[in-house]
Amino acid sequence: MIKIGNFELKPGNPVFIIAELSANHNGSIETAKETIRATKRAGADAIKLQTYTADTITLDSDKDDFLINSGTIWDGERLHQLYQRAYTPWEWHEELFHIAKEEGLICFSSPFDRTAVDFLEQFDPPAYKIASFEITDVGLIEYVASKGKPVVISTGIAEKEDIELALKTIRSTGNNDIILLKCTSSYPAPIEDANMVMIDQMAKDFDVYTGLSDHTMGALVPIVATCQGACLVEKHFILDRSIGGPDASFSMNEEEFKEMVDLVRLAEQALGIRSYTLTEKQRSSRDHSRSLYISQDLPAGTVITEEHIRSVRPGFSLHPKHLTDILGKTARRNFTKGDRIKLDEFE
């Protein structure tokens, strides 16, 4: 079991549902605060921030390497320009953590360098998130893990060797509270690339809890992830896509997020428990199963053949498995059509 705040993550427990604020405040702290309140109304368990500045995540360079040109929705922008537009000002964090606490939401963040970790420690976040593109930054991962808090880590760009190295780095600090997230680093991500079978596979391969950081459209992939054993689901949240912003196009609004939460909770109910024990309703339905009944009037002394007894609905009489025990035996009493029977009524 891994505990994040007051939420216990383990198989069989409810899925931990995180709303990702990312850049969806669009530069307004009031929008950020209202977004946090809206995530609570939509049923989120937690709100997650991102803690960086343009200068802590990239270089202010005009060189071609720093121009986005890889088939994304941000193509044509320079990295520094994008992150300057998208970052959450650090001076907002105290108030955003406070609003989350008021709303009863767990609040934590993705730091993108050591200074962000040091800054966040003052708020005593219950966990840290390593973003997909930082999975190769073993220095950052080791520093985050050394704080002794659960580490949630996305795998959107990771090959198996990257995951193995990241996990080895975390565990080397003595920290074993790890949640590995299946993620497709496309924005939005095509549903055919979701590859949800990896939720269960990663849990087996790496002996960790697993979950989903999702960039597909709609609620289907989180539902499938739930059915594959995800203990955590993260989705980008926005008040209204019409406000725009770097992540608006693949973020859920309040109504959509609430529908996703409701469907995930229904999926959890549908999964149930590993047990052959019948529910009360199932047990009562056994009344309509098959059992052995006398199919015609019979005098005592009749030698029973298949013409005299049938396996029919309902199930109040003798179990059909006893048919061969009765055939060829003699009726000890008179029977009428539709009588229930017992084994000791034949000899």
Question: Any overview of this molecule?
Answer:
This protein is an alpha/beta fold. It folds into two domains: 13-52 and 87-271, TIM Barrel; 280-345, Type Iii Antifreeze Protein Isoform Hplc 12, CATH 3.90.1210. Helix content is 31%, strand content 16%. The chain has twelve helices and twelve strands. The strands form three sheets. The chain has an eight-stranded parallel sheet. The chain has a two-stranded antiparallel ribbon with strand order 1-2. Strands 11-12 form a two-stranded antiparallel ribbon. It is elongated, with a radius of gyration of 30 Å. The mean pLDDT is 95.
What's the helix and strand layout?
Layout: E1 2-4, E2 7-9, E3 16-20, H1 29-41, E4 46-51, H2 54-57, H3 79-86, H4 93-102, E5 106-111, H5 114-120, E6 128-130, H6 138-145, E7 151-154, H7 160-171, E8 178-183, H8 197-206, E9 209-214, H9 220-227, E10 232-236, H10 254-271, H11 280-285, E11 291-294, E12 309-312, H12 323-326
Parallel strand pairs: 3-4, 3-10, 4-5, 6-7, 7-8, 8-9, 9-10
Antiparallel strand pairs: 1-2, 11-12
Helix pairs in contact: 1-4, 6-7, 9-10
